[in-house]
Every structure is written in structure tokens, then in C-alpha cells.
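Quick question, first post here. What does this chain look like in 3D?
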Amino acid sequence: MRGFVGGATRGAPGGLPAGVFRHPVALSTLLSGAALWWARRAYRVAPARAVRPLLAAIGLGAFFVIFQGVEWVSLLRQGLTVTSSAHGSFFYLIVGAHALHAIAALVILAVVWAGIAQGKLVRNQFAGAQVFWYFVVGMWPIIYYKVYL
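> Answer (accepted):
Ran it through. C-alpha cells below.
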């Protein structure tokens, strides 16, 4: 086991080993939030115009979740587990809770997308989904700062 012996770490600051994949914060947060903002703006003018930017927001969110999984596999291979250290417990609890919220928000955005495609979406549903996604997106830089730096 490299890097996590008795809760001590070797490598990068913040308790994570060197060479671990780091999320591209700007790509996964700012672009997905911007795409959703663009989708909502397009929806107000003509609902069908919101489909592409909404799919972009969903795709960027899926990218985030998939690569978070890649990061977890890397960390598990290096010995960081829930039971390996207090940092490991904190990391998986906080980042895992965020990942679950991101997945839930992606499901909600997919429901919004389907509603638009079927012409059955109520405007308030889009607004609620947008607020939830912005919450998830807005929390990531805070979590990133606390966990990774």
C-alpha cells in the first residue's frame, strides 16, 4: 500500500497522494452551470431551443461524476479507504455525498429534458431543477478547497 500508512500520507498537500487525478473545477462546474443558464434562457424564448444546451449541461455533469469515479478508483488503489484514516473517512463522506447529489440533480435534469422533448414541462419544474443544479455546482468549489487544497 503506497501513500496511506497509519493515516499519514506522502505526496500532495491536503492529504491526497501525488499523481491522483484532480477534477477540472472550471470545466465541470462553470461550463455546466453556464450551459444550464443558456438552456433556461432559450426555454423562455422557445422551449425546443433549450434541448441542446440542456444536454450539454447534463453531459458535463455526467463527465464530472464519471471522472469522480476514476479518481476514487485511483485513490482506492493507493490505499485511501474509509477506514484507512480520518482523512479517508472525511474525503469519502463529503465527496460521496456531493456525488449522490450530483447524480440526483442529473436525473432531475434528464426529467426536465424529457418534459421539454414531450412538450409537457411546466416552467416551474425547470426553475426548480436549475436551482438544485446550481446548488450542486456551487458547492463543488467549496468542497474542492476543503478536501483537495
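Confidence is low (pLDDT under 50) at residues 1-14.
DSSP finds four helices and two strands in the chain.
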